[in-house]
Amino acid sequence: MAVRSASAVWNGGLQDGNGRMRLGSGAFEGAYSFASRFQEGTGTNPEELIGAAHAGCFSMALAHGLEQAGAAPKRISTTAKVHLEKAGEGFKITRIELDTEGEVPGMDAAAFEGIAEDAKRNCPVSQLFAGAEINLKARLLS
Questions:
Q1: CA distance 65 to 118
Q2: CB contact burial 95-121 (16+ within 10 A = b; e otherwise)
Q3: 109-138 mean pLDDT
Q4: What pLDDT score was predicted for residue 37?
Q5: Domain residue spans of the chain
């Protein structure tokens, strides 16, 4: 199977340093810092990238589940909110909130929610975070 890579370079100490993260494909490269991670500074952060990865993986798993159920989606839109909180002397990702909307002709809301729950449990990124609380809010758009 595929092996994907990403890299990060950090310069300096924790609070006064800065760095860059880059996807191996070259599709994204961005700056990050203490301020972009723990405050509201400019740049990206690991949690934001984890959220993008989870939202993308979940959306693909949901599309697959819907197709398997005979209801091909027109569109799926997912947001992932990754919660980074103080834990003892350090920090911990305590939960991820997935919020998804799907345009799926001929699908009823209960079936959509069931397939979305299955996608949440089974997408590879969700499985990676099995020890974390992952909440899902799924809505079928008419």
A1: 8
A2: ebebebebebeebeeeebbebbebbbe
A3: 91
A4: 93
A5: 6-38, 46-141
Predicted confidence (pLDDT) per residue in 63-91, tens digit: 999 999 999 999 999 999 999 999 999 99
Q: Phi then psi for 48, rounded to 5 degrees?
A: -65, -40
Tokens for 33? Answer: 């810092």
Distance separating alpha carbons of residues 122 and 30, to the nearest angstrom: 29
Give residue 70's identity as a one-letter amino acid code: G
Following CA atoms 31, 26, 59, 117 in sequence, which dihedral angle do they give, to the nearest 10 degrees? -60
* CATH architecture, domain defined by 46-141: 2-Layer Sandwich (3.30)
Q: Give, in order, the Cα–Cα distances in Å from 34 to each of 6, 10, 17, 45, 91.
A: 20, 11, 7, 9, 13
The pTM for the full model equals: 0.91
CA–CA distance, 9 with 25 (Å, rounded to integer): 16
Span 89-122, pLDDT tens digits: 999 899 999 999 999 999 999 999 999 999 999 9
